[in-house]
Amino acid sequence: MTRLRALWLLPIFWLTVAAANPVLVPDVSQRKIDIVYSFTGAELLLFGAILYPGGRIPTEQADIVVVLRGPSQSLVVREKQKLGGVIWVNAESARFMSAPGYYAIASSRPLDKLVDERTAAIYELGVKNLQLSPASAEQADTRRRFENGLIGLFSKSKLYIEQPGTIEISNGVLYRARLPIPARVPVGSYIAETFLIKNGRVIAVASKEVRIDKSGFERFVAESARRHPLLYGLSAVALSLLLGWGAAAAFRRT
Predict the structure, then answer these.
(1) Phi, psi of 164 (to 5 degrees)
(2) What is the C-alpha separation between 224 and 118, in angstroms, rounded?
(3) Looking at the chain, which residues constitute the CATH 2.60.40.1930 domain(s)?
């Protein structure tokens, strides 16, 4: 009878423990961002609330980290070297299987003050903790050099962004963060994740999906290139020849 009673109380105990943790209620300002010919970038607002058990706010405020991650892609990073001090040529290269096409992170305080390196690596908090999945078997120092090169290129293009200390938390409950969307952002499904961190531990996680896609004539061109690559290529060549002929005719008249 005692063992049976313990089995009945076990689910109640787990429900009590789960209810003791706060819950995140996140949202985004736009669920879908359309890229048209005049698109020069956008700003995405990530906001939400922290719901504490019983509605009571602890005296020690927790911290918030938000991450917006774009679709993963396979790519090759090539290292250039100067030949004879004049010509740049491709030297070594490395392939990565799952590098995110876009990654932005914002936090209420610097990451090194919120979590240790192990926790940051587990949740991929920060560009240096991205798991890029190298496909080739280089030495550790060589692989790291190419990883740093990839991160540097994407950071320069504003596709990898870090904004420490930019999240605002009001009354310990409401939070908001703004992340820039550059003009050359890749299309696809994005995941906006929110992490609630306290005493170096992630105590709650929630996510929302964001879709970035081309619209109008840009969408028509992209769909044509994907569905009919041969016809698209021939059309592009024909259009180039036509424009070249037109430019030559115009110069002859002048």
Answers:
(1) -70, 145
(2) 45
(3) 22-213
Q: In whole angstroms, give the CA distance from residue 146 to residue 71.
A: 20
According to DSSP, the residues that pair with 77 across neighbouring strands are 94
Q: What size, in residues, is the chain?
A: 254
CA atoms within 13 A on the CB side of 93: 8
pLDDT in tens, 33-54: 888 777 888 999 999 999 998 8
Check whether domain 22-213 has CATH 2.60.40.1930, yes or no: yes
Beta bridge partners of 100: 72
Please name which of 213, 182, 162, 210 lies closest in space to residue 29, comparing C-alpha atoms: 210
Summarize the confidence of residues 53-70 as an average pLDDT. 88
HSE, side-chain direction, 13 A CA sphere, residue 196: 25
Which region, left, alpha or beta, applies to residue 53 given φ > 0 means left and ψ of -120 to 50 means alpha? Answer: beta
Cβ pair 172, 38 in contact under 8 A: no
